[in-house]
Design a protein that fits this description.
This protein is an alpha+beta fold. The protein contains twelve helices and five strands. α2 packs across α3.
Length: 274
């Protein structure tokens, strides 16, 4: 896979704008129209013949739909201080958002739900998610990265009936993120680590046969003589200014079909125990 991890310190403001414009498949004229500036000025900014103001950086960033983290990188490359904060989710300033996230997770019980950051590290989860992991593995894993949990040969892989399909979808999702200019190369480092694991490269390259009559790709598990099948829904904050809030992803698992015992009692994770 082509490298996208050129260090930000080696890339000029013009380089970054050009990279984002290319990623968004916009011409200089397209970007100029969206940002209400002349195409000539866009050209001058990309070649370094003109220096941007803070206001111009914000207009270009809005037009290019650049995430907050990368907007800070744009500001730094032009000699300005970063604008957008990055706090821990347990920071008191973010307490209203954290309460909202915890409410969503707890409300989804008895089904698993969790929160991951931009590198797919687990940030929060509900009790049903923790019960499911203990039921599958027999212990609470120390590994906190969702992708490693799924694709590593000694973690969840032996219990995922459609592991190749799930891995292909996850890796392609990661590749979609890698297609965009990135601030620090962390995603590419994770990608390179995962693709070296057994079977991952074959899975991501494979042509998986999908059920032509299906509507969702399920996440199918089998352990202790029992099969479970799930599909997931994803949620994000729609108006985040803080980098952490913009980047976290809330994922909720729902029973797929009737295999999970949808008529059973309301025990956590449908009677898996804890």
């Amino acid at each position: 896979m082509t490298s996208n991890s050129t260090q930000q310190s080696e890339r000029t403001f013009g380089d970054l704008v050009r990279a984002w414009r290319s990623a968004r498949r916009l011409s200089q004229l397209d970007l100029a129209g969206a940002a209400d500036v002349s195409a000539r000025h866009v050209s001058f900014l990309e070649t370094g013949r003109a220096n941007p103001s803070r206001e111009m950086i914000e207009r270009l960033a809005e037009a290019l739909e650049i995430p907050r983290r990368e907007r800070n990188a744009l500001l730094l490359s032009a000699g300005f201080a970063p604008r957008f904060p990055k706090r821990s989710l347990d920071d008191p300033v973010l307490s209203p958002a954290e309460r909202g996230v915890r409410f969503l997770l707890d409300s989804h019980d008895p089904y698993p739900a969790f929160v991951v950051d931009r590198l797919w590290n687990l940030v929060l989860s509900n009790e049903a998610h923790r019960v499911l992991l203990r039921w599958l593995l027999g212990y609470t894993p120390n590994e906190q990265n969702l992708l490693r949990l799924v694709v590593a040969p000694d973690l969840l892989k032996p219990f995922i009936r459609n592991w190749q399909t799930v891995t292909q979808f996850l890796m392609r999702r990661l590749e979609q993120h890698l297609a965009l200019p990135e601030a620090d190369g962390s995603l590419e480092e994770l990608y390179r680590e995962l693709v070296r694991l057994p079977g991952v490269d074959d899975a991501r390259r494979s042509s998986v046969d999908l059920d032509p009559h299906g509507v969702l790709v399920p996440f199918e598990l089998e352990a202790h003589g029992r099969r479970l099948s799930w599909f997931s829904t994803l949620a994000r904050f729609g108006s985040a200014v803080d980098i952490t809030l913009e980047e976290i992803l809330i994922e909720c698992l729902h029973p797929h079909g009737r295999r999970n015992g949808t008529n059973s009692s309301g025990d956590r994770c449908r009677g898996l125990g804890g």
